[in-house]
Automatic annotation (TrEMBL):
Belongs to the peroxin-16 family. It is found in: Peroxisome membrane. Its main location: membrane. The keyword Nucleotidyltransferase does not apply. This is Peroxisomal membrane protein PEX16. Keywords: Membrane, Peroxisome, Peroxisome biogenesis, Transmembrane, Transmembrane helix. The keyword Transmembrane helix applies. It holds the Pfam family Pex16. Residues 151-163 have a biased composition (Basic and acidic residues).
Length: 356
């Protein structure tokens, strides 16, 4: 495995171009192979997972021995989540082929439950920060409690400078006390030079992550709103699938409940953001990445146009009327027909329009 990682990192440009080429070739699978549905989805998922792993290996190239050791010790949860998302369409197709259209929701619900659990763990692990890209982009943990080697050296240098200035400003270097202080200072400098590793790399301090209760007590009422909004975002797909499993695709109840959870959760997060912008809250701060994440989540609301029963009742009729309108136009009519055909095909798969 290590040899494979080294090869990927040495040939990263070639690997990226090759992965892109293979992903494009999946659109040209033989017709007899594509009829099974499981085949092309399995190939697409496999290619996607390999591409994800290769990109992760490239992006996590170690810069020192410590990074190399940390890299090989565990697989990030964000990577696990991305790999699961690459595989979920194949899971849906296999479930439909084996168990039928109605019972496929059981396996989809299990998949969404696993994704929700992973996101909750990431949310806890990152000390209750907003999940970027649904948790696929994991926020780096706060390392403010640990000192860098430069900061450690600066703090070690500071007492020596004070000692030197004390000697020159008030103490006679020729007396016994001055000579003792000078000798201790010289001894300290020599110890640093002879054993820099012991000074530059202090023992690692285990920082205990704050509990949810600690986080809420520090951030106040807006912290509670933030956690509530983020949990709504995490559990919304699972609730939607469970309702679809019970009421079916023709019922408006799952569609309305899912939209309500999205609206309420995003509204709560927007309130906390407006509070930050108005200057009323200094304990809960949103970064630019988190603000962009809120915009991304709002854009995902467009997927409700593709979900049944709204799609069957309204969107599809609009698409078909548009197709009839532009059909006489030579090129535009052909393009519109193919585009609408793709949209109708995509709509049949929950994982394509889940937004989770």
């Amino acid at each position: 495995m290590e040899a494979y990682k080294r090869w990927i990192r040495r040939n990263k440009d070639f690997v990226r171009q090759f992965d892109s080429l293979v992903n494009n070739l999946t659109w040209f699978l033989p017709d007899e192979f594509a009829e099974s549905e499981i085949g092309p989805e399995a190939v697409s998922s496999t290619v996607g997972m390999i591409t994800t792993m290769n990109e992760y290996i490239i992006e996590t190239s170690p810069t020192d021995e410590h990074t190399r050791c940390a890299e090989s010790s565990f697989v990030p949860l964000s990577l696990c989540l991305t790999l699961l998302k690459d595989l979920e369409t194949t899971i849906e197709v296999v479930a439909e082929q084996l168990y039928g259209e109605k019972n496929k929701w059981n396996l989809i619900a299990v998949t969404e439950a696993v994704k929700a659990c992973i996101r909750l763990v990431i949310f806890r692990k990152t000390e209750y920060k907003m999940l970027l890209q649904g948790g696929e982009t994991e926020i780096a943990e706060n390392d403010s409690d640990s000192l860098s080697p430069q900061e450690t050296k600066r703090r070690l240098d500071k007492p020596r400078r004070n000692g030197e200035s004390g000697i020159s400003n008030g103490q006679n270097p020729g007396n016994l006390q001055g000579r003792a202080i000078s000798a201790l200072s010289s001894f300290g400098k020599n110890a640093i030079m002879e054993h820099p590793q012991a000074i530059m790399e202090p023992p690692s301090k285990v920082v205990e992550k704050p509990s949810l209760q600690t986080f809420l007590s520090e951030k106040g009422i807006l912290g509670s709103f933030f956690v509530t909004g983020e949990i709504f975002f995490i559990i919304r797909p699972l609730i939607y699938v469970l309702l679809m499993r019970k009421y079916g695709t023709r019922s408006w109840f799952p569609w309305c409940i899912s939209l309500a959870l999205d609206l309420i959760g995003n509204s709560i997060l927007s309130v906390t953001l407006m509070s930050q912008n108005s200057g009323n809250n200094h304990r809960l701060q949103f970064s630019d990445s988190e603000k962009d994440e809120l915009k991304r989540r709002r854009m995902l609301w467009a997927l409700y146009l593709m979900r049944d029963p709204f799609f069957t009742k309204y969107t599809r009729q609009r698409l078909e009327s548009t197709q009839r309108l532009v059909q006489p136009i030579p090129i535009l009519g052909f393009v519109a027909e193919k585009l609408i055909e793709i949209l109708i095909g995509v709509q049949t798969r929950y994982t394509y329009i889940s937004g989770s």
